[in-house]
Specification:
Length: 297
């Protein structure tokens, strides 16, 4: 009887996953994707998490007959990918910071050859670092029918990186107020971006041990729960009652809170963007000038 129940649970999980995949196809989510898109990766991750949550909830609910168990399994299927993963996203952030630094240096060197700012942007559109090449190409196209400052603001919104905000703030003020020594400022900002990337690498190295500990704790907890369900189902018989389901809900909430706390311990606080209002451009340039002065002998 247990094998039949498990088979029914697997079939139900397959049906749930099929429904999710059909929904993904209807929404137009495709795999793989050649270029980075700021919106589609979120939809893909949400689709994957939704499929895992639905499959886990159906499987656990069919095997155990516990509605609370199905709920907790669904929450685990939704949250565990983010808890155990995330290294790819952090790697993309570091690559984007390095790309911003390299692009700032490209603009500086191109402008040193007696090219204007708009001409320098267009010239670097095809050779910009891969992490921001698509956005730089879009910026170059916008310059054909849009003024430089609004195009740069749209470019900053597309990339959405605090480090790029500094560079864009300098470029916007240079375009609107003819700021002097822009090449030197771009070089200083590029060095600041590389220093930030180096600092983040050191922080990530220090947090690697904590992330490993989180994975071990989660793996042992999940393995223990699975082992009890498969090997010693009678030990979990008290959870079959309504009171047992309430206790299971409390225990599951405690574990979920602990896992969320562990996840926050291993994730650095993301820096906030400051180019969200017009005042941010002045603030960004002031910070850039301050950093430049601090680096002078």
């Amino acid at each position: 009887m247990g094998a039949v129940t498990a088979l029914a649970g697997l079939l139900g999980a397959g049906v749930g996953l099929g429904v999710v995949l059909a929904w993904a196809g209807w929404r137009g989510v495709s795999f793989p994707r050649p270029r980075r898109d700021p919106l589609r990766p979120r939809a893909e991750r949400a689709t994957l998490r939704l499929g895992l949550a639905a499959g886990a909830a159906v499987l656990v609910g069919a095997v155990t007959g516990w509605p609370v168990g199905a709920l907790l399994a669904g929450l685990a299927g939704w949250g565990l990918p983010g808890l155990l993963g995330g290294t790819k996203g952090r790697g993309e952030q570091l690559a984007r910071i390095e790309a911003v630094a390299a692009w700032a240096e490209m603009l500086r060197d191109t402008m040193a050859g007696a090219a204007g700012l708009e001409q320098a942007i267009v010239a670097t559109a095809t050779v910009a670092p891969l992490a921001i090449r698509a956005e730089v190409a879009t910026l170059a196209v916008r310059l054909d029918g849009e003024r430089l400052a609004p195009a740069l603001r749209g470019f900053a919104d597309e990339v959405g990186d605090p480090t790029l905000d500094l560079v864009v703030a300098a470029l916007v003020l240079a375009a609107e107020h003819q700021a002097s020594r822009l090449g030197e400022l771009l070089g200083s900002l590029a060095q600041a971006a590389r220093d930030q990337a180096t600092m983040r690498l050191r922080v990530e190295a220090g947090r690697a041990r904590s992330r490993t500990s989180v994975k071990v704790v989660v793996g042992v907890t999940a393995g223990l729960a699975l082992g009890l369900v498969v090997l010693n189902r009678g030990y979990l018989a008290p959870y079959d009652s309504a009171l047992g389901q309430l206790v299971l809900l409390l225990v599951g909430a405690m574990f979920a809170g602990a896992f969320v706390w562990l996840s926050r311990m291993t994730r650095p606080t993301a820096p906030e963007r400051f180019l969200v209002t017009s005042d941010g451009f002045a603030t960004g340039l002031t910070e850039a000038h301050s950093h430049q002065k601090s680096r002078r002998p």
